[in-house]
From TrEMBL:
Top enzyme class: hydrolase
PROSITE patterns, per the entry: TAT (PS51318)
UniProt domain Alpha-L-arabinofuranosidase C-terminal: residue ranges: 499-682
Source species taxonomy: Bacteria, Pseudomonadati, Pseudomonadota, Alphaproteobacteria, Caulobacterales
Basic residues bias: start-end ranges: 91-102
Stored Gene3D superfamilies: Glycosidases, Golgi alpha-mannosidase II
Name recorded for this polypeptide: non-reducing end alpha-L-arabinofuranosidase
Keywords: Carbohydrate metabolism, Glycosidase, Hydrolase, Signal
Keyword Hydrolase: yes
Keyword Hydrolase recorded: yes
Catalyses which reaction(s): Hydrolysis of terminal non-reducing alpha-L-arabinofuranoside residues in alpha-L-arabinosides
Signal peptide limits: 1-26
Family membership noted in the UniProt record: Belongs to the glycosyl hydrolase 51 family.
């Protein structure tokens, strides 16, 4: 495909290395004028705008939120002699080849039992020769100086002595060995270890001595302070993020996902190869685990149902498993799995990007509309109260990379056969409460409507920072067209869930400028944009296998989530945004985004109690700007408060092991001065309190 794809966008990374200084606020000569009319209000900002999205995209959830230290703990791969492999990035698992188990002795001392495996297709059998310890081991483990819990499923012949050993250094004293009580049948044995030193080259070995054999069915190694299997540090930071809604567990991953494999005994859930991302999934972080995590971090779960390889019956079973009483067939199975009370999930996502040929189970639109309706009818027969979002595929999204490119027809017209959202309105109206849309704009590129290709463009920092906001507006243009074709949309009951969005992927201060301006654009469309899901929610954190901090991206989310108002009000000005440079359509909206205070972008909102007015100003230029701002319909007092995202430069980041570079700084200003001075490349919230 000659244009950006979702898969490509999710792996894109870039950064800009510029050095700047953010000066303190000072009075300046106003060169721009604007006004805020607090009496001219719009629909309230939904708290779901600050939502997130997580997906089993390869090892992401398993190696970030989940606390399991081991890879392949249920032996998807055979236990064989190790092959040379490229070294993993220092102290970072993501992107490195998966670790595998290897024999601690001769290669032929371990075989794989395919006739009576504990789980999956095979389990290792270790054949012993007497007093020499033989077994299996896994190395390159990242360990902290703390206690660890091991859960070992094992069986051994009578007379065999099995030992588990955790190793954190080359010195003989830097290891701990614990005997394992075994039986001839499978037994689950809990063990405890105390790692003496932090390391990234730890090792776990399971060995035996004596006559005969022993078998290993599954092994788990977790920090003892894990919270329901999740990392305590990650849970604490996500709770601090105060995310309002979280979309899970996919994503593209969803289309080949069978949720039945992800419930019940963790050690009996079969490991499978996910054909979407070509990665082994242990199925440990399943339905109950993710919904438990949602409770731990106080977030509304927004659960995704596969309409790829799955069936309407499976969708109905999932609703009953999650929301049904313990007296129902699937609710009883949930209760047997340790959760007698229903999870009471309200928000359901029926299918992900099913308009795309990259989705497993992709079918023609006219067939998918029927399939969607079958899913919804089956699911609502189980629970008629659920709120349903469906794959939208708006015309702009179908044009700019998410649709199927046709030579000579690069732009998808509203109402055409390729306009998936139009087809959903026409064929599925009444069977969804919201339509989804996704956008991953390419940096420093535009979509050429004549060729259907992305072409390089030169942008100022200010133009670059509006890349995501521009795509929000292209969707809004589509929405206006759909309202004309389907007048029922004018009553405001059907919403849009912008449940996948991201831009830049750099997790630096430069990216924060784009996020802030994207929020401003979301606030301008509160009449129909009800929710958003940032890709990925783990991007709010910077983490290693043992430590984590809130990233620069996380701080800009906190800035607005914690301090911005909830009732948007009108902002006007004397400096309108420039007209479009490129033909309208694709990724070019009918009007460029922003407030009439160019080059500043201003948004304002009242607090819920109307006792404060918050004005957000983003100066995405490399020059200090002054804004003469009139406040109408609101009488501010003499004392004002500010919150500014503080950073030493555009490339500033927050990373584990270093002092935070991007922070939220609180200050003060005079609300009656009338003029605001905005430092170069600044993001500032001004609080005007009612007199």
């Amino acid at each position: 495909m000659p244009h950006i794809s979702r898969r490509g966008a999710l792996t894109a990374m870039s950064a800009l290395s510029l050095s700047i200084t953010l000066p303190a606020y000072a009075a300046g000569s106003p060169s721009l004028s604007g006004s805020v009319n607090a009496a001219d209000t719009r629909s309230p900002i939904s708290p779901f705008i600050y939502g997130g999205f997580i997906e089993h995209i390869g090892d992401l959830i398993n190696d970030s939120l989940w606390s399991e230290v081991l890879d392949d703990r249920k032996f998807y791969w055979p236990v064989v002699k190790p092959e040379p492999a490229p070294a993993a990035a220092a102290n970072r698992r993501r992107g490195a080849p998966p670790r595998k188990w290897h024999p601690t002795g001769p290669d032929d001392s371990v075989t794989m039992d395919t006739k009576a495996p504990y789980v999956g297709v095979h389990s290792p059998v270790v054949r012993l020769t007497g007093a020499t310890p033989l077994g299996i081991g896994q190395g390159d483990l990242a360990l902290a100086k703390k206690a660890y819990s091991v859960r070992l499923v094992v069986a051994a012949d009578a007379g065999v002595a099995v030992t588990a050993t955790l190793i954190w250094g080359s010195d003989p004293a830097m290891r701990q060995s614990v005997p394992v009580a075994t039986k001839t049948d499978w037994t689950t044995v809990p063990l405890t270890f105390n790692c003496g030193v932090a390391t990234t080259t730890g090792r776990l070995e399971i060995t035996g001595t004596g006559p005969g054999t022993f078998r290993v069915g599954a092994v788990s190694l977790m920090p003892a302070d894990n919270v329901g299997g999740f990392r305590a540090d990650m849970i604490a930071l996500l709770r601090e993020m105060d995310c309002k809604i979280m979309r899970m567990p996919g994503g593209n991953f969803l289309s080949a996902y069978d949720w039945h494999f992800t419930v019940g005994d963790l050690d009996k859930r079969p490991p499978i190869m996910d054909p979407v991302w070509n990665a082994v999934q242990p199925n440990d972080v399943g339905v109950d685990e993710l919904l438990h995590m949602a409770r731990l971090i106080n977030v509304e779960p927004y659960w995704c149902v596969s309409t790829g390889f799955d069936s309407p019956r499976s969708g109905a079973e999932l609703v009953e498993y999650v929301n049904g009483g313990a007296n129902t067939e699937w609710g009883a199975k949930r209760a047997a799995n340790g959760h007698p009370e229903p999870w009471r999930v309200k928000y359901w996502d029926i299918g992900n990007e099913m308009y795309g040929h990259w989705q497993m189970g992709h079918i023609a639109p006219e067939q998918y509309y029927v399939k969607h309706n079958l899913f919804v009818d089956a699911m609502r027969a189980v629970d008629p109260t659920i709120y349903i979002a469906a794959p939208g595929g708006f015309a702009d999204e179908m044009t700019t990379g998410q649709g199927i490119f046709i030579e000579g027809q690069p732009q998808v017209a509203i109402g055409s056969e390729r306009d998936w959202a139009y087809g959903m309105f026409k064929n599925c109206m009444g069977r969804f409460d919201a339509l989804q849309t996704h956008a991953y704009p390419a940096e420093n590129k535009r979509y050429d409507l004549s060729t259907g290709k992305l072409v390089d463009i030169t942008q100022s920092l200010n133009e670059w920072s509006r890349g995501m906001a521009q795509r929000i507006q292209t969707m809004a243009d589509c929405w206006e067209a759909y309202k004309k074709a389907f007048p029922v949309l004018n009553d405001g009951k059907i919403k849009v869930f912008f449940d996948e969005w991201a831009y830049h992927f750099g997790a630096d201060y430069k990216g924060c400028l784009a996020v802030a301006i994207a929020f401003h654009e979301f606030y301008r469309h509160t009449d129909f944009i009800e929710a958003a899901g940032y890709t990925m929610a783990t991007g709010w954190l910077n983490f290693t296998p043992t430590d984590s901090v809130i990233s620069a991206t996380g701080r800009v989310f906190q800035l607005y989530n914690q301090h911005f108002g909830v009732i948007p009000v009108a902002v006007t000005g004397t400096s309108p945004v420039p007209p479009p440079r490129y033909p309208i359509g694709g990724d070019q909206p009918s009007v460029n985004t922003g407030s009439a205070t160019w080059p500043l972008d201003v948004s304002a909102a009242l607090t819920a109690d109307h006792k404060a007015l918050i004005v957000s100003v983003v100066n995405a230029t490399e020059e200090t700007q002054s804004l003469k701002l009139a406040i109408n319909g609101f009488a501010p007092g003499r004392a004002g408060r500010t919150w500014r995202l503080d950073a030493p430069g555009l490339d500033a980041q927050n990373v584990v092991g270093a002092a935070a570079q991007v922070t939220i700084k609180e200050g003060s200003f005079n609300p009656r001065a009338g003029t605001l001075t905005l430092p170069a490349t600044s993001i500032t919230l001004f609080e005007y309190k009612l007199a």
